[in-house]
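Review this fold:
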Amino acid sequence: MANVRIGGVDLYEEVTGTGEPVVMLHGGFCSLESLAPIAGALAASRRVHAYERPGHGRSADIAGGYSYESGVADALAYLDAHDLADAHIVGYSDGAIIGLLLAMQHPERVRTLTAISANLDPSAYDRDPAVNGPILPELPPAGRAVHSPEAQDRVSPEREAFERLSPDGAAHADAVWEKCMRLWTTEPHIDPTDLARATSPVLVLAGDRDTVRPLHSLRIAAALPNARLGLIPGTTHGLVAEKPAFVAALIEDFLGEAVTG
């Protein structure tokens, strides 16, 4: 557990295990704690690298807004900082979008990509509250639901983690949430035809009740030249927390086949 200098900013990182390199990319308004069960499973046989982007977890925030392109630049710089010519990439939500862009723009740096709950544009979200609670809900204080128990389960743990971990202090959560909301409602804008440039093997995962509509996840997988799709039954956009062992097993199986195939 240490910091790594990326783009002139110190980012918190964790590196565990030995073997083939895996780089974990967390979701928006999340910390590495959200991916800990997956990282722990993968570290049993691989070297797992994970870092927290600016304003997330134990990494201090930066001036200005967030963008997926800056996320790609940070990912490339992180690979370079560890002398990794390429790596297996496992991304969740915002991290999955960064992973898709990385695989499209720099396919030689990506051995495989696992994209969990990614979307190509803001229209991908299911706006029916009955499906997965309100889309992009307001950030509540820790422990208080906004519209439903589902919204509380999805949002409050992230706020609690922010208040506990952030070097910027608990009150800065609202500023980071606003910047995340701005990102989620304006980006990304990925043309499905451009996914053909992502030639690495890709595992597309999503919940069958994900905020990202299942048909959108199918569209992503169908546009990739070497992809498979998994919809996790009985899960939402929080599938990593809801069924971590199942998700980890699917990733392990995918990586095993990619290496031996």
Observations:
- The chain has nine helices and eight strands.
